## 1
Amino acid sequence: MSIKFNQTTKSITLHTKHTSYQMKIGNLDYLLHLYYGPTIRDADMGYQIMQYDRGFSGNPYESRNARTFSLDAQPQEFTTQQQGDFRTTSIEVVNGDGSYSYNGKAVDFKITKGKYQLDTLPCVFANDEDTVDTLEVTLLDTISNVQIILLYSVFEEADIITRAVKVKNLGEKSIHLKKIMSVCLDFLNGANFDLVSLPGRYGQERQVERQKMTHHIHTIGSVRGSSSHQQNPFVILCDRNATEDYGNCYGFSLMYSGNFLTEVELDQYDQLRLVMGIHPKQFVYEVKPQEVFEGPEVVMAFTEYGFTGLSHLYHDFYRSNLCKSKFVKDVQRPVLINSWEAAFMDFDDVKLVNIAKAAKKMGVDLLVMDDGWFGKRDDDNSGLGDWVVNEKKIKCGLHKLVEQINDLDMKFGIWFEPEMVSEDSDLYRAHPEWAMQIPGRHAVRSRNQMALDMSRKDVQDYLIEKVNAILDNANIFYVKWDINRSLADIWSNNLPADKQGEVYHRYILGLYRVMDAIIKTHPDILFEGCSGGGGRYDAAMLHYYPQYWVSDNNHPIDRLKLHYGTSFVYPISSMGAHISDSGRLVPLKTKAVVAMCGTFGYELDATHLSEEEQKLCKEQSELFRKYYHIIFDGDYYRLTNPFEIGNMTAWQHVTKDKSESLLSVVVTNLTCNGPQEYIHAKGLEPNAMYTINDSKEAYSGSALMNAGIPINREVPEYTAFQFHLQKQ
Ligand code: GLA
């Protein structure tokens, strides 16, 4: 068992292969957090907590005259509310009697084999070969009768611990949750932490930012109704001196696609508290007597081996325990061509077939028909919601079009944006009440479209029926699921006035229900998520889709940063990356090298390419297939940081057995008559010999890692190099 209870000290320790996590049923039965970090074997960490009389920090009444116990200075697994802890909280609840307070004490715990489940939200899962144990601790506030169930699953081999929270109302009146955080992690000494997050914007998602923790609450979150382009539900807490290769790093990845919040507070005593969960903005959730509310899962990891060590833990875990699609492990992803940047909405069946014919010559396996094939959709002002083929454009009908593509020995894919509706659509005309709009006010427009009220079951059922009807009517291999605006006008016509604070979360629950229903009935379809590029790229989405479109920004030099940032947590196999016309000064080969740090494909009009270019593309598609196992199943290393001024950006994939590696370099800047530059490989076997691109000579892993590979600097700007290292 990876979870141990010590009867004498009342501590519970969670052990993964290299880490330990400890808590204790402490003073007055509060559940105290004792430790998370490198393994501590059977040590009891209770000795770490010192008690002092802390002025202006309240003491629980039961402490009587002992003034040294204050929740304001205790590390906790789940906080109280209004009990003398003035730091940020796990919970804000309005009890049945109108009081704002929570005082949960540990009343029970159990340890079981296997992974816990959530009924309403996506979770990671255990495979047969995984050793997974679960701890469930129950806290009870005996005055309000509100029960908190804290769930922990320990993935021993993977060095991963997941957490989630359930709130059960055992009282006789409804309670209203205004804040419920899935994780609370307290560090007794937090003065030397940095926080790393992935902020961005449309076209520049997941750029990397690192900040020193100072004495206030640092917040990372989204209130856009989606996890957003602007922030990502993933953060790292690391030592101030942590680097790519060394230093303590804690990762927190939230499995949720809606409004989220991470708060990191460095308090008056240099203690650090991190909480993460659903954003409390406009969140008031009623939990009726006997009902249970579930908060989303947080996937936590710890390593002493810097950002690379942490990324490897997440990449490995998310490649095996997050998404059940057969495309994750068993079936190779196709090389695709997408019609968007080739034709936007100006296409018909003939044009698509011509693009496919040209793409076939480029070694492409799959044609994706993007936006514009349905309803009345010649621009982005109309048609969303009418998921019926526009036979003025697809004159032969969808079935026949797919047949023509299949006859070329290619597969066919299609685009949807199910959550949205245009005012100029048959759906809106028939059901204006399905669009979110605050009564008496005009809706906020964004790309001239409105969001459907995904909290409604009738809307969910409509979408399941319409999307399935298309998928069942033709031989569809791939679906791109898009959403192209942030949510505003949060209102559901289906809910009474006092339940409008539930709409943001109910939207996400409805979305998950629709996705689940469509994906489960189409296990053979490859799904790719998208939100105006990479606007909702989060772990929950990757539970449903094995891949996600990184960004609408296809410029290969910008992509270096986009791929770098995304790779901190999400595996390379999840990163949708294409070659497009963007970046006209950048050679086609460089674009291909960059797109090979992802799912690889094209986003251009293949009929416009010369025969020579088509031939080069074919070679690149073949190389992608040749290197697929290194890129998709190997370990990924960031060799340089594209956010720092330098002349080249480099990264590397290494197979798990270290027998092969693909090292890629893009020259982004050349200084006149500058020094020779060397790229240092990582992750090789030091004593093994490797050839480079079938060279006659072989070089030791140690030489390649310590002395590096010299990069020829007498090359045009934006030249790319790809070194295939083969162990002898
Ligand atoms: C979004 C996507 C693009 C494309 C368009 C279609 O912007 O990110 O790839 O699908 O929508 O409208």
Note: The chain has a mean pLDDT of 97.
## 2
Amino acid sequence: MKKIQKINRRKFLQYSAFGAVAVSFPGITNSMSSNWKGTATADFHPDVEIELNMRAVKIPILDGPQTLVWKITGDVLSGPKDTVVNLVDNYLAPILNFRKGQKVRIFLRNYLPAQSILHWHGLHVPAKMDGNPMYAIDQGETFVYEFEILNRAGTYFYHSHTHGVTAKQVYSGLAGMLIVRDREEQALGLPTGEYDLPLVLQDRSFDQQNQLHYSNHMMQRMRGFLGEQIFVNGRPDFVMPVASTAYRFRVLNGSNSRIYKLGWGRSFPITVIGTDGGLLEKPVKVPYLMVAPGERYDIWVDFSGRKADDQITLKSLPFEGGSMMGMMGGMGRMGGMGGMGMGGMMGRRGGMGGRMGMGMMGGSLPLGGDYPLMRFKITKQVSQKAVLPSKLSTINKFREQDADNVGNARRITLSMRHMSALLNGRSYRMHDIRADEIMPLNSKQLISFNNGYYGGHGMSMPHPMHMHGEQFQIIERKVNPRFESTYETVSQGLVSQGWQDTVLVMPGEEVSIVKPFNDFTGIFMYHCHNLEHEDMGMMRDLLVK
Ligand code: C2O
Ligand code: CU
Ligand code: CU
């Protein structure tokens, strides 16, 4: 099975190097021809050229023995030197800095003892540049990406997207932040330089030898892998030294399955200025912020008035619907455990913490529990007063009527049963595109993700649904009354005003979006960004034509 796939793919590489059509399956031959090649094309004139190398290396993460990780490092071959910011002694991939309108060429070189491919999560690029698993390269091979940055300024994400092993590869280190900047945003005078910083949230578990522990047995596959320790920007017990002024933090949830309910230990709100696809129209204040795997939120945090040595803790606050109890569907409030759920129960018992709970219940950090993520420490007093603009951008707001299929939404039903996670009852298969998965080019589609809203049986879990390609807008969220009490623990932290490429769909919820399919034909994916669910098959291809 694996072998056959490999041969097909090799054939494809061979043929396409000659510009010929490699794989024949109906309807998508056009999208497979011409400009994708294993080498750079002569008629593409890049503004910036970089090289990214994927290698297995040992780095110091914890005290004691070094940790084997899968590390991406990069070099700028031509163009602005700050395009690639390598993170030394860190498993995270380099931060990539691009500008809107730039033409980018990336040589991805695989020195790993495995196949791999990188996907540019949130970027609107041609299908052949999107890092679909069918383009995975072997050890020693190079994939050449060429595309233009069409996206607005914002915080994006790139990571491995390799068939069946995305979760493991991302966990091992194949993921990083990608930032796009543009003139519009620059004109706002938002915090820049040392006041514009990433916050990459992840969870990891280690064995006694300081090696990354990952498992995907039945339990992890159904619920997702949870690490025992929180890592921020690749560091455990992270303390960020800050000055007493305003910051723009780019929050990226790069965890496999962990959902965060960001909040301050004290009761002041979180000011959100951007979502997956860039700035909001105006800042939005929420009492807490739900951040699901794959999502990004830019937040504005003003430390002015804080005294030297003040410490501020950023926490994940308790919520329901993500735990085992939530999985049973509408039973979150059963047996007088309301407001606490399995998360609180496990946390209080504590006994599940050790190795036994590792990756099962999330150890001492159950999903939906109450735990610190990191601390900020005021180390510098500055007098400069930063002002948050009341208007950030203009968003052309979609309404349901703007969709070409208004009144006839494409419904995608999320389900988990018989030890599998499905989209419209289907599992991922390469080259298996059904009629309802064909999107007309240059159309806007109304799509609704239904996670048990209409009832039904089986388990119900939160699913962060992601669609490749252009950013979409959330039109409506509806929750089945049976799930209301669970939903109430997260609803005020769901920001629906901006451009998104990933949306958290809670148990009992139906979320409708309008998504444009402009510019590029070919195959794009949609899937749950709980990476264990994705690898289990909760992923499908779409064909734009
Ligand atoms: Cu971030 Cu298809 O993935
Ligand atoms: Cu993506
Ligand atoms: Cu899922």
Note: The pocket of CU-O-CU linkage (ligand 1) is lined by residues 119, 121, 157, 159, 161, 294, 466, 468, 525, 527, 529 (CB under 6 Å).
## 3
Amino acid sequence: MKKIDKNFLWGASTSAYQFEGGYNSDGKGLSIQDEKEILNKETSDFKIASDHYHHWKEDVALMGAMGFKSYRFSISWTRIIPNGIGKVNQKGIEFYSNLINELLKNKIEPIVTMFHFDMPNELEKIGGWGNRKVIDAYVNYANILFDNFGDRVKYWITINEQNVLLLQGPIVGIKRPQNCNVLQHVFQMNHNITVAQSLVMQECHKRFAAKVKIGTAPNISSIYPASCKPEDVIASKNVAVLRNWFYLDIIVKGYYNRILLALLEEQNAMFEIKAGDMEIIQKANLDFIAFNYYTTTTVKMNEKIANYKLPIQERIFGFPGFGETVSNKNLNKTQFGWEIDPKGLKVTLLELQERYNLPVIITENGIGAYDKLENEKIIDDYRIAYLKSHIEAIKEAINEGSQIFGYNCWSAFDLISVHEGISKRYGLVYIDRDEKDIKEAKRIRKKSSYWYEQVIRSNGEEL
Ligand code: BG6
């Protein structure tokens, strides 16, 4: 077995709107997440979250105690620029500047995501990623981040889960205009995001050359055919393009994958590419691929209309003759019904290696569970088992050629899940709050955090 590189970035992740709270403190503007309608009224909103805004120093100390080499977090656009464009909020700059300094003091490498689902409200009002003005606003925002933190941050991630944001917009909190051609709208947004992040990648290289690295972080999971029927294999390849490759092929290789373009053309949903856009994209030249991995997807061919609730004009998945998702009977599930597939992580890493030949880093991977606090302890052996099996898969993939340089599990601390509240806990550290009562948001290390500390100390040898 090959040894893991001694500079491997072991750590964990959070995102601003799910973790920080302080949603309107010290001049922060509102994002779509602050005003999102919480569909399940029993679950928490994002206003106070884990109250990291008031516990950041203690939180970094805990990361230091766990031996983190890296911490992947996102910056809230509206904490830096309350309206998304225009006046900069110095208090916001100060907050992240202090956080970054504290991380560096603890020898923790900051890995900073510029955008994690939290579009400024004022920009959403003009159409969000659907409006090309937001490209300029995002580039301006990224420049402010480079101006203020570029001297200390060596790893930048432009966009979190571009594919999930687009394919599952309403779940993530992104409204779609009524009566639009959803497929066209979604892939127009995708194109605009791709142009925006390409400009930011170019700017990063222009400013910092090789000293600073920049990548993007889609959610990537290998797609299995439900059987060895050739039709199912074709379906798996189609869905793999829709689910994974369309977003990476364009930014890494500089062209749009024709398998999805063919579907868009057939559905009358082709998006607009303005003169000069492809040249911008082809100069993006990203340094690494970051990706989030939770599970794999299994797909079968659907000759007729698939069993989807939405009418075809509002649908993104399940086009007849394209493929539809089915469950994989070989895999166990989490308490929240997500299939657990550590071998699938190895498959995914090797596919990424084969397809793009770039360094990769995992920026999310973990298990959501109803953790129980008993006698001030959380015995989360299922989380240890989950993380252990996935790290084993990483080791095997390294042995077989993957250029992975870091693993940041989800999540460093409990935080509010995208749409299932605080009760769906992912953290290594427990936050003592429930759905409606923030209490004192006391931090308590779970059993898994002690186990992970030893994994980091032994550089992945002691699992
Ligand atoms: C990823 C997101 O999709 O999955 C995170 O980047 C999210 O923001 C994580 O929390 C887990 O999903 P969920 O729905 O369980 O919160």
Note: The domain at 9-457 is CATH 3.20.20.80 (TIM Barrel).
